[in-house]
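Q: Epoxyqueuosine reductase, please. Structure only.
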Amino acid sequence: MNATQWTQQIKTEAKRLGFLSCGISKAGFLEIEAPRLEKWLNQNMHGEMRYMENHFDKRLDPTKLVEGSKSVISLLLNYFPSESQNPDAYKISKYAYGTDYHFVIKDKLKQLLHFIQEEIGEVHGRAFVDSAPVLDKAWAAKSGLGWIGKNSNLLTQQVGSFYFIAELIVDLELDYDTPVTDHCGTCTACIDACPTQAIVEPYVVDGSKCISYFTIELKNEIPSEFHGKLDDWMFGCDVCQDVCPWNRFSAPHQEPLFNPNPDLLNYSKKDWEEITEEVFQEIFKKSAVKRTKWEGLRRNITFLKE
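A: Structure for Epoxyqueuosine reductase:
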């Protein structure tokens, strides 16, 4: 068998495992992203996310991350829900409705890597789900899965942007895909709608002004100048995705593990304000919301009430 046949096998298996799409690019240094990342860090747009400063070289070159790597296999997994929260409630980003995606995707990636090893032979690789210094969106765009939009999310004409991005980096040469063109055009919906003006220019998001940063990453108090600007988001934020015209093509996911606890959908603001630690642990037993802990969610809700 040859690289073309292997590539086809891998893409077929990825589809069988439930991934939306699969694109492949040659592992190597990301020349275009290097100066962008350096500038973004120098302007302190990562706020207190100091880990973004680490492993600069590895972030830009997967061959430094996985020895002997030749290909980056990028995969998308849909998380768009079929139901939304009670409109009279503090909001949670849709990606966190169900089981923590790290577990769900890691399991699928392991299955895909096992399939590659079974079918093709001795292939070494590693699975990544935004838990290591890999520029997920850059690799997905390079692999032809979409383009990076003005809100800095990966966008596709077919399904919008409500999906997770993950990678397998392997020491196997495959057929490589080519990038697609940018289809944002003159649209500025995401820039206009951002409650904290975090999209400081097209394609540049100041992470230190993003609602997701305030409600998840920031461990200190949320700056008082953002009172009344968090749009009732208590964990994450979907505004720049919700207003994106391409997301009118989003279709509900087919992954049972991403289905939410019914309480998450039905709770009112009053219910969230009164949530106990025990109930928090029950509703978010396996959820990404556990990252912020009960105390963090309480801090966010208190800030929204003030």
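A: Brief note, in case it's useful. The chain is about 35% helix and 15% strand.
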